[in-house]
Amino acid sequence: MIVFGLSESKKTARRIAKSLKVKFGKFESAKFPDGEMHLRFGDSVKGKKVVLVKSLNPEPNDGLMELVFAARTAKKLKAKKVYAVIPYLAYMRQDKMFKSGECVSAPEMAKLLNNSVDGLVTVDPHLHRIKKLSEIFRIPTKRVSADPSIAAYIKKKYNKDKTLIVGPDIESSQWAKRIADSIEFESTIFLKERFHSRKVKVRVEKELDWKGKEVIIVDDIVSTGHTMIEAVKEIKKRKAKAVDCVCVHAVMAENAYAKLKKAGARKVLSCDSIKHKSNAIELSKVISEAVKDWK
Ligand code: R5P
């Protein structure tokens, strides 16, 4: 087995290779003056099981193209198998036709990968209307959960009796509630209404004893940040001591990080599925465990 890191994902790839005790290969990605990509394997892949690590953010479109081109090149160069490790799998949220004529992107993205790689490992893909990855992927897939890593982090850094965990919407209970239950922290889930991508409203359904507590909002993705921002505002109204935000995937579009801080979040923390200054929780070990079976 040999592991390659595509652009923006080299650090994670190097850690995965180290943890699997396999070679970290050289891979060059550059751009021609006209914006087209130039990719090159700097180590032989012939007869090897090739692992390509590439998170689909920032630039999900370029990222997907880079991954597909690299995978097909590896096969042309006679790799035995080509596996993709995609810590953040973009396009999973466009899982139905919301307005007539829209492209349902999730299965289209899956088709590209189905036709390019022999297996996929990803971290907490956004599964909502699509319940299982096998509904859109025909290649073997493995879904790594960041929950235990986040739970261990919270347990180490916060005091159970003075901390509350919040999920900002129903979908987030698969992260927030599960994490809170696993370390026996008190938790509640808010209700969210989304009017469009930049306008959301959250409602506190079950009140807790907020006063003087440290509150951690846990969600899978911070994209525009509006979900977290609205949740921060609701909690601040209730005189909590501090509000921190923790997410798996720090998409952080449109300056979301700064907006969250401005809204009053004390800390904004994330897992390292996407490279970002908020990264505080490392996932390479749990990802390596999933890749190990293919070794
Ligand atoms: C949606 O259901 C997800 O779990 C996140 O809550 C959502 O993607 C966050 O998006 P934004 O940061 O744009 O509000």
Can you give a write-up of this model?
The protein starts with a strand and ends with a helix. It is an alpha/beta fold. Strands 2-1-5-6-7-8 form a 6-stranded parallel beta sheet, with helices on both faces. Strands 10-9-13-14-15-16 form a 6-stranded parallel beta sheet, with helices on both faces. It has a two-stranded antiparallel sheet with strand order 3-4. The radius of gyration is 20 Å and the shape is globular. The protein has 2 domains: 2-145 and 283-294, Rossmann fold; 147-272, Rossmann fold. Helix content is 29%, strand content 28%. It is built from 8 helices and 16 strands. The protein has helices at 10-20, 60-76, 105-114, 147-157, 176-182, 226-237, 256-263, 284-292, and strands at 2-5, 23-25, 27-31, 37-41, 49-53, 81-86, 119-123, 141-144, 163-167, 186-189, 191-196, 199-203, 214-222, 242-250, 267-271, 279-281.
Strand content: 25-35%
Count of strand segments: 16
Helix share, percent: 25-40%
State the helix count.
Answer: 8
Under CATH at level 1, the class of the largest domain stands as Alpha Beta
What is the fold-level CATH name, i.e. the topology of the largest domain?
Rossmann fold
Determine the N-to-C terminus distance: 6 Å
Ligand catalogue = ribose-5-phosphate
Give me the secondary-structure topology:
Layout: E1 2-5, H1 10-20, E2 23-25, E3 27-31, E4 37-41, E5 49-53, H2 60-76, E6 81-86, H3 105-114, E7 119-123, E8 141-144, H4 147-157, E9 163-167, H5 176-182, E10 186-189, E11 191-196, E12 199-203, E13 214-222, H6 226-237, E14 242-250, H7 256-263, E15 267-271, E16 279-281, H8 284-292
Parallel strand pairs: 1-2, 1-5, 5-6, 6-7, 7-8, 9-10, 9-13, 13-14, 14-15, 15-16
Antiparallel strand pairs: 3-4, 11-12
Helix pairs in contact: 1-8, 4-5, 6-7
Ribose-5-phosphate binds next to β13 and α6.
